[in-house]
Amino acid sequence: MKGILRELHLEVIRRITKHRLSYMLLDGEHDIHFEFDTLPNFPTYLEIESPVEDKLWKWVRNLGFEREQAKPWSTKDVIEWYEKQQKKRKK
Predict the structure, then answer these.
(1) What percent of the chain clears pLDDT 70, i.e. is strictly above it?
(2) What is the mean pLDDT of residues 42-63?
(3) For residues 36-64, average pLDDT
(4) Distances in whole angstroms, Cα of residue 33 to Cα of each of 23, 26, 85
(5) Predicted TM-score of the model (pTM)
(6) Residue pair 52/30 in contact by the 8 Å Cβ criterion
(7) At CA 81, angle to CA 35 and CA 89, rounded to 5?
(8) Residue 36 scores a pLDDT above 80
(9) Predicted local distance difference test score (pLDDT) of residue 87
(10) Could you point out which of 5, 36, 42, 46 has its C-alpha 20 to 30 Å from the C-alpha of 25?
């Protein structure tokens, strides 16, 4: 794979190590995925994935979160947000 990427003249811009703990629950006909991700220097966060949006919001509520607390963020978004928070604290 690295050879293919080099041939395409792509270069590594960031390398991260992520620890992931995965759970799956069958809710009716749909698999709901719960992923606990831990990145170095950041708190562990939860991803909930569902093919049905109503099921996703059901599990957000079941776990005690409000809809406003759920974010449609990628790992990149999480890193950028926490890096900004860390910079604010240093000021």
Answers:
(1) 99
(2) 95
(3) 95
(4) 6, 9, 28
(5) 0.78
(6) yes
(7) 125
(8) yes
(9) 87
(10) 42
pLDDT of residue 12: 86
Rg (CA), the chain: 17
What confidence score (pLDDT) does residue 2 get?
84
57, two tokens: 């919001």
Q: Are strands 19-27 and 45-49 parallel, antiparallel or unpaired?
A: unpaired
Q: Which residues are registered as beta bridge partners of 16?
A: none
Tokens describing residue 2: 């690295």
**Contact indicator for 20, 35 with CB cutoff of 8 Å:** yes
* Token pair 């992931």 in the structure block, residue: 20
Residue appearing with tokens 């698999």 = 31
**What is the Cα 73 distance to its own chain's centre?**
6
For the residues of the chain, what is the DSSP string, one character each? Answer: -HHHHHHTT---S-----EEEEEEEEETTEEEEEEEEE-TTS--EEEEE-SSHHHHHHHHHHTT--GGG-----HHHHHHHHHHHHHHHH-
